[in-house]
Amino acid sequence: MKRAAKRLKPVTHKRVTPLLDEEDFIQKTLKKDTLVDRVKREVTIIAELDPPKTLAIERFKSGIKALDAKGIAAITLAANSLARTRVCNLSLAALLKESTNTPFLLPLSCRDHNMIGLQSRLLGMEVLGVENLLAITGDPSKMGDFPGATSVYDATSFKLLQLIKQLNPGQGYSGASIQKATNFTVGAAFNPNVPNLSRTGRLIDKKVAAGADCFITQPIFNIQPIKELALTVKTSPIPFFIGIMPITSYNNAIFLHNEVPGIHLSDDFLARLEAVKDDKAACQRLALAESKKLIDEALEHFNGIYLVTPFMRYDLTGELIDYIQEKENRQKEIS
Fold first, then answer.
1. What is the enclosing helix (H) or strand (E) of 189?
2. How do residues 124-165 score in pLDDT, each as one tens digit?
3. What is the spatial distance between Cα 222 and Cα 245, in angstroms, rounded to a whole number?
4. Which of 40, 63, 217, 297 fits 314 for a cystine, CB–CB 3.0-4.6 Å?
5. What φ, ψ does residue 45 adopt, rounded to 5°?
6. Residue 79: DSSP 8-state
């Protein structure tokens, strides 16, 4: 060391290029307008389309094209909802990204991935430019169509929310740097179809503390839960997207009413549907009119609407999108 340093001259001045402070780096990364920024200032629509169960995806692609043409804020591709196997939503988003102007919002389920898989999936989403996520625990595998399949559940939605927010400043689950800050906006699922909705405030607070930027509700089929939710979250700054799913038939309504826990359709609505159940067109008009009533009530309290497409009937979703957009245009003309 002595011989090596003998001929070196002392350093009298050292020029250092300063790195950005962590806080400044995150701020620059997150500067652009997000889905949450938009819903806080104006009516914002997102629509869900289930990926197909088979590799016959042409109708699905037509559905995406139809929704994309409506100019909505995001298209959601479900992640094996009800534990039924479907084509990977991230793969479909990657396939359709170049031909679609509308950004995708992708649910990520704790049921299907361990912690290694969850972080790997999130890094893949970042590489592909997917920025809008929905963190869900996921329906148990026993509900689905794969006998003997097991649920992973290394994490719940709370832990997944924390992982996503940890990635935003560039830190992985183990604490190691991922060499880049991500830019994820993450929603949390919320079920308003419970007996005591007013008692869910603590659950909402816990998900916000874990990192939720917004909430996306399961479909609501009655006006009363919308009113109760509005009262429950009256002082919360976190935006909600209210789930609306049009009924497709009387049988569909009866199934939801009797078989899906927490969902209750009014006796009056069921009776009116039953009266026209053999007239497909009349039944559809009645069901859409009911969905529009729910949308009207939701827009009295919330800016966010989440339209769930039933059975690939994206024509119904498109009609509801048109209804909301026309309603907003009339409101702007009046004001």
1. strand 185-190
2. 999 999 999 999 999 999 988 888 899 999 999 999 999 999
3. 11
4. 63
5. -110, 130
6. S
* Strand intervals (E) in the chain: 44-49, 74-77, 104-109, 132-136, 185-190, 214-219, 240-244, 304-308
> What percentage of the chain carries pLDDT values higher than 70?
94
pLDDT at 195: 87
In whole numbers, what is the pLDDT of the chain averaged over residues? Answer: 92
- In this structure, how many other beta carbons lie within 10 angstroms of the beta carbon of residue 160? 28
pLDDT digits (tens, 9 = 90+) for 14-29: 554 454 455 555 544 5
Reduced to 3 states (helix: H, G, I; strand: E, B; else coil), residue 288 is: helix
Strand 132-136 to 104-109 pairing: parallel
The kind and range of the H/E element at 24 are helix 22-29
Between CA 325 and CA 82 the distance in angstroms is: 31
Question: What is the predicted pLDDT for the residue at 32?
Answer: 75
Pairing of strands 44-49, 74-77: parallel
Q: How far apart are CA 96 and CA 104, in angstroms?
A: 10
How far is it, in rounded angstroms, from Cα 62 to Cα 57?
9
Rounded distance, CA 215 to CA 101, Å?
Answer: 24
Q: Which amino acid is at 31?
A: K
Handedness of CA 319, 41, 164, 240 (dihedral sign): negative
Of 25, 29, 71, the C-alpha closest to 47 is: 71
pTM value surpassing 0.85: yes
User: In 3D, which of 160, 167, 144 has the Cα closest to residue 83?
Assistant: 144
Sign of CA dihedral 310, 144, 74, 240: positive
- 170 within 8 A of 180, measured Cβ to Cβ: yes
How far is CA 123 from its chain centroid?
18
CA 21 to chain centre: 31
